[in-house]
Design brief:
Length: 138
């Protein structure tokens, strides 16, 4: 199955400063900005486009339960995950399972843009958080 880089997720402490950098230094355009209080997300998200390449800026909204807050406490701010688009997420999950790769339990969801996604267990990727996603309605 083909995989293509979809976006990079970046954990930030101050989303305003990060947006300023992306817009004024990198020349990015903000595609969307929203807040998600869904369990396992609990973040403010700004989607930035730099010449066709997307970065999601992720700032925790709950410093005790947000996985982004946990990530920043453990590893500091910076690249949180790398997301790869697949043609069919269900088939990609089967392919992962056939290769002995686990997904993070409870990570399967659909975001507000209709992107279905899961996270691969970083224990199976040498510590990198990898997201697989598809866009079934596009």
């Amino acid at each position: 199955m083909e995989k293509h880089l979809d976006h990079i997720g970046v954990a930030v402490r101050n989303i305003e400063e990060s947006i300023h950098f992306y817009e004024n230094v990198l020349g990015a355009t903000m595609i969307d900005r929203y807040r998600s209080e869904a369990i396992g997300v609990e973040s403010e998200i700004a989607i930035m486009d730099v010449n066709g390449f997307r970065t999601e800026l992720l700032m925790p909204t709950n410093n005790t339960t947000s996985p982004i807050a946990r990530f920043i406490k453990q590893k500091g701010k910076g690249v949180h995950h790398v997301a790869y688009q697949v043609d069919d997420l269900d088939e990609a999950i089967k392919e992962l399972e056939e290769n002995g790769i686990r997904i993070l339990e409870g990570s399967l969801r659909t975001n507000k843009h209709g992107r279905r996604l899961i996270y691969v267990n970083p224990a199976d990727t040498e510590g990198t958080i990898v997201e697989y996603c598809d866009y079934p309605n596009q």
